[in-house]
């Protein structure tokens, strides 16, 4: 029997990806269609996966929905972890840590606080989460922007300093790190992510923490080539939201009211599944489970 964190699902998935030099998609899900699509895609592709919920789900759908997602996901024939994305409010982390069926991992986003407060906050949550077998992802520096289910951050970007990355991880004990290197939530400006990202900075962060899985936020849109480049720079958890969701919402928008709800749902899940499968191939996680 392995002990924590080696026995944690998210930890196992991301460290296997690290050993294999590929990345695993962390798919933001908002409803049962999306959860079903990720599970089906993962089983079809024999790929590990991570399902991410926002704190919005804690409040809107509630703990029984989360229990369903975790039990459904963990009963899949391939490893799938359930992660809580961007916990900004301390009461959301407290709520998440009190669930009878716990998340595998939680992102504590204290990036709106000062760097010292960020370290203090992460450290205290790592201690509490560790006792429950839950891994913690933290944001070092600060990313701007917003996405559906996530409050908009209009504070200035703070890029992660590579020379401070190792001490941040050592002092906090966090298991995964989301660096800020020009990536933003929501739409990129002219030139796209190619222009906005400072890959040299990302390489230095990876060099400072060669065995710590990095988490990529701000992926809409990002080209397949740039995803591959980010994997070479240590990205192991790649957050995907609109990239795999837009096809589904478009299909629903065009067909709601025209098809019976059962048919709409089945075909909607199929469209969503295809999008997730495509990304599993791009990230290299297909065939790894
Ligand atoms: Zn994010």
From TrEMBL:
Binds 2 Zn(2+) ions per subunit. One is catalytic and the other provides a structural contribution. GO terms for biological process: glycolytic process. Its cofactor is Zn(2+). InterPro entries: Aldolase_TIM, Class_II_FBP_aldolase, FBA_II. The keyword Glycoprotein does not apply. Coiled coil: none annotated. The active site is at residue 85. Zn(2+) 1 binds at residues 86, 185, 217. Its EC number is 4.1.2.13. Pathway: Carbohydrate degradation; glycolysis; D-glyceraldehyde 3-phosphate and glycerone phosphate from D-glucose: step 4/4. The keyword Lyase applies. Keywords: Glycolysis, Lyase, Metal-binding, Zinc. One of its GO terms (molecular function) is zinc ion binding. Zn(2+) 2 binds at residues 109, 139. It catalyses: beta-D-fructose 1,6-bisphosphate = D-glyceraldehyde 3-phosphate + dihydroxyacetone phosphate. It is an enzyme of class 4 (lyase). Catalyzes the aldol condensation of dihydroxyacetone phosphate (DHAP or glycerone-phosphate) with glyceraldehyde 3-phosphate (G3P) to form fructose 1,6-bisphosphate (FBP) in gluconeogenesis and the reverse reaction in glycolysis. Belongs to the class II fructose-bisphosphate aldolase family. This is Fructose-bisphosphate aldolase. It comes from Aaosphaeria arxii CBS 175.79.
């Amino acid at each position: 029997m392995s002990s924590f964190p080696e026995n944690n699902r998210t930890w196992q998935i991301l460290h296997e990806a690290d050993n294999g030099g590929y990345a695993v998609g962390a798919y933001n899900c908002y409803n049962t269609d999306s959860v079903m699509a990720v599970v089906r895609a993962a089983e079809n592709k024999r790929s590990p996966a991570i399902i991410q919920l926002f704190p919005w789900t804690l409040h809107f759908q509630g703990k029984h929905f989360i229990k369903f997602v975790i039990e459904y996901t963990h009963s899949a024939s391939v490893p799938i972890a359930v992660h809580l994305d961007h916990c900004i409010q301390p009461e959301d982390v407290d709520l998440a840590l009190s669930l009878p069926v716990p998340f595998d991992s939680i992102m504590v986003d204290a990036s709106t606080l000062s760097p010292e407060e960020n370290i203090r906050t992460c450290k205290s949550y790592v201690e509490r989460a560790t006792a429950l077998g839950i891994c913690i992802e933290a944001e070092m520096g600060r990313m701007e922007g917003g996405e559906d289910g996530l409050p908009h951050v209009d504070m200035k970007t703070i890029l992660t300093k590579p020379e401070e990355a190792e001490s941040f991880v050592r002092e906090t004990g966090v298991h995964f790190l989301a660096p800020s290197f020009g990536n933003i939530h929501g739409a990129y400006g002219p030139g796209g992510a190619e222009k906005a990202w400072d890959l040299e900075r990302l390489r230095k962060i990876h060099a400072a923490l060669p065995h710590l899985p990095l988490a990529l936020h701000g992926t809409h849109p990002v080209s397949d080539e740039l995803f591959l480049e980010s994997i070479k720079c240590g990205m192991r958890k790649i957050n995907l939201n609109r990239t795999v969701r837009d096809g589904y919402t478009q299909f629903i928008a065009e067909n709601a009211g025209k098809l019976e709800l059962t048919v709409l749902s089945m075909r909607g899940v199929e469209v969503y599944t295809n999008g997730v499968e495509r990304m599993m191939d791009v990230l290299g996680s297909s065939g790894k489970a």
